[in-house]
Structures are given as structure tokens and as C-alpha cells.
Specification:
The chain contains 3 helices and 9 strands. It is an alpha+beta fold.
Length: 174
């Protein structure tokens, strides 16, 4: 009976170690891929650069009066920051401005500020692309007037090289 108990304890410990090893292998496999996340940015252009910040969950546009007093008197811009949280590189093929609650989107060709597309994001890096907010205002107006859609605002998406796409979770009201 004593040897049966020892065999049961050893078998139980072996089963526990095997389960932990399997869990570790699954976690390593999941973490070895690229894991891109997108963040919606809103700001203004001027003084040789951009002044931007993330869009709040409320989706309210920022007030740029103080920035305009400081010389940021260029056009209002909307942007997306794509961050690769994974261990493998990710390729961003296309950036689009989309309507939340509608079907239309804008894929800018030459008006996009940022690195040329397609762009490879290495592990642990991020990059941002921007366009004038006027695209968003015109897209929302066209969707509401022509298609009679109930648009709540705009968000941005990034098409990836693996055929998937990611979207910003927040929406900028327009």
C-alpha cells in the first residue's frame, strides 16, 4: 500500500507538470505572433509638426483654441497609431477612415501623412498615419445626406498583410 501511494503522488505531480508545460507552450505560441492594436488620434497641424492626442471614450472632439494661440493654426487632423504588441513583425497595407453606423469609408491615396504603405512594424514598435479631418466631415455629411445613415462619428482601420484588419475602439463624433 505504501508503494501505491508513492506511485499515485508521482503520477499526480507528473500530470501537473505536463499540464503546466502544455499551458506554457500554448502561451508561447499565442505570444509569438504579431499582435497589433490601433488607437484613434485627433489634433491639429502647424509650427512644423502635429499636436495630437488620443480620442477619449466619450468621443468628443478636442478644443484647439489654446493650441491655435500657440501657432498650431493648420488643419484639424485625424490619425491612427498602430502598435505591435507581439513578438513577430506586422505589415500595415492600408489605412481607412470609416463611419460608425454606416457603410462608407475613405481610403486616402496621396493625402496620408506618415510612412509609405505597405509598412512593416517590428515587434514592440508603433507608427502613426494622419489625414485632414475635412475628409471625415465630408464623409459623415455624404453618409447622412445621400444614404440617410445614422452616423455616430468616425473611426480608423488598418488592413494588415495577413488579410485581417484592426479598428480603433473609440469613435470621434462629428
Amino acid at each position: 500500500m505504501h508503494s501505491d501511494f508513492i506511485a499515485l503522488v508521482i503520477a499526480s505531480i507528473s500530470l501537473l507538470v505536463a499540464g503546466l508545460s502544455l499551458g506554457w507552450q500554448i502561451a508561447q505560441w499565442l505570444l509569438s505572433a504579431g499582435r497589433p492594436k490601433a488607437k484613434l488620434l485627433h489634433g491639429v497641424q502647424g509650427r512644423g509638426g502635429l499636436a495630437t492626442g488620443p480620442v477619449e471614450k466619450s468621443g468628443e472632439p478636442r478644443n484647439f483654441e489654446s493650441l491655435r494661440e500657440q501657432g498650431f493654426n493648420g488643419p484639424e487632423i485625424i490619425g491612427v497609431q498602430v502598435t505591435n504588441h507581439g513578438r513577430a513583425p506586422v505589415t500595415v497595407d492600408r489605412i481607412a477612415l470609416c463611419t460608425r453606423g454606416g457603410k462608407m469609408n475613405v481610403v486616402p491615396q496621396n493625402e496620408l501623412l506618415g510612412p509609405a504603405l505597405p509598412h512593416r512594424l517590428e515587434a514592440g514598435t508603433n507608427e502613426s498615419w494622419y489625414m485632414e479631418a475635412d475628409f471625415g466631415y465630408r464623409l459623415v455629411a455624404a453618409s447622412r445626406d445621400t444614404l440617410h445613415e445614422q452616423i455616430r462619428g468616425v473611426y480608423m482601420s488598418a488592413a494588415l498583410g495577413n488579410g485581417k484588419s484592426i479598428a480603433t475602439p473609440t469613435t470621434l463624433r462629428m
